[in-house]
Design brief:
The chain is mainly alpha-helical. The protein has a domain of about 50 residues. It is about 60% helix and about 0% strand. It is built from four helices and no strands. Helix 1 packs antiparallel against helix 2. The radius of gyration is 27 Å and the shape is elongated.
Amino acid sequence: ETKKSDSGGYFFVSQLHHVYVGLLVYTLLMTGMFLSRASNYIPAGISIVALIYAVVSYRAFMNDFEWESLPWEEIAPDAEGNDYVPEDSGETYVQPELAKDLAEVLSGGRAE
């Protein structure tokens, strides 16, 4: 199997962008429906407040959400200010259920 690039972050952010646009279109549509069909302006007012909140949260998502690069300078140092460097312990994990099957394969198919 060939190695593939990780493009999941870009597609996830693109999907969130589409969800926000859909939310804005839906809220605009419902505001128009409330303005044309409701007997007073209270439902439309609530809908306009929801529209304002959706626009503000969409702008915050587009401007403040850091997804292309992580802020390592904020999360990497430990309490003393030293950079965190993970150490390799050399240990590996083997799932117990698979170790039993591996022993059977290595023994030529004979169950132990």
